[in-house]
Specification:
By secondary structure, this protein is of the alpha/beta class. The chain has 8 helices and 10 strands.
Length: about 220
């Protein structure tokens, strides 16, 4: 059985009892980064062996994990943070398991997009998760123009390196639009700002703004 296991997006206490039980009892844990997951496993005294499953070994390691699953082993899949498959290599293993009729389940838990959406206060009955915008500024603006035609609340993931440019692009494409940004969700310096992009840009420029972001338009 493949157990897809959601893990914390910051605060180590955000893990379910069932997730801990599964991580303790499976034969192997496939981790996006074994060193990163070790912090969580040590915290809960979980001694299960781990192996890496990440972007660059996803095909070869995927075949290896599939072989174990076919032999009847139980494997847990975790990512660095949140729910595997949401913008991380977990997607590949999940599809390999589906193609090969391997039974699987998801142990539910955190995912940054849901925390961001709810904290934003924006309508949550129709929303689009866009993930990361393209890297290049022109492509990013073009994608935002497409998104601006939708009536849905839009959720983006963003890094501290690009957050200012993304906010500027939103300001250009949707003048006067209120947005929300959530930084360091569930962590010590968690912060949600709800305002026009230009106001948030000013705030970020005068404060430290390290960390990871969810942007809600
Ligand atoms: N699988 C993860 C999930 O379920 O949310 C997402 C993985 S994606 C590679 C990483 C991105 O998620 C970050 O760049 C950031 O935009 C967002 N993210 C993850 N943890 C976050 C947090 N604690 N606060 C804000 N954003 C976070």
């Amino acid at each position: 059985m493949l157990y897809i296991v959601s893990t914390p997006i910051g605060n180590l206490a955000d893990i379910t009892l069932r997730a801990i039980e599964v991580l303790k009892t499976v034969d192997l844990i496939a981790c996006e980064d074994t060193r990163h997951t070790k912090i969580l496993l040590d915290h809960y005294a979980i001694k299960t062996p781990t192996t890496s499953f990440f972007q660059h070994n996803r095909f070869t390691k995927g075949e290896y994990l599939l072989k174990l699953l076919k032999e009847g082993k139980n494997v847990a899949l975790v990512s660095d943070a949140g729910t595997p498959g949401i913008l991380d290599p977990g997607y590949n293993l999940i599809n390999l398991a589906i193609t090969n009729s391997i039974p699987m389940t998801l142990i539910p838990g955190p995912t940054a997009l849901i925390n961001g959406l709810v904290l934003s206060g924006k309508p949550a009955y129709k929303f689009i998760f866009e993930g990361f915008l393209p890297n290049k500024p022109i492509a990013r603006r073009n994608r935002l123009k497409e998104l601006s035609k939708l009536e849905h609340t839009i959720i983006l993931y963003e890094s501290c390196h690009r957050i200012l440019d993304t906010l500027s692009a939103i300001q250009e494409i949707w003048p006067g639009k209120d947005v929300a940004i959530c930084r360091e969700l569930t962590k010590k310096f968690e912060e949600t700002l709800r305002a026009k992009p230009e106001t948030i840009i000013e705030h970020l420029k005068t404060h430290s703004y390290k960390g990871e972001f969810v942007v809600i338009i």
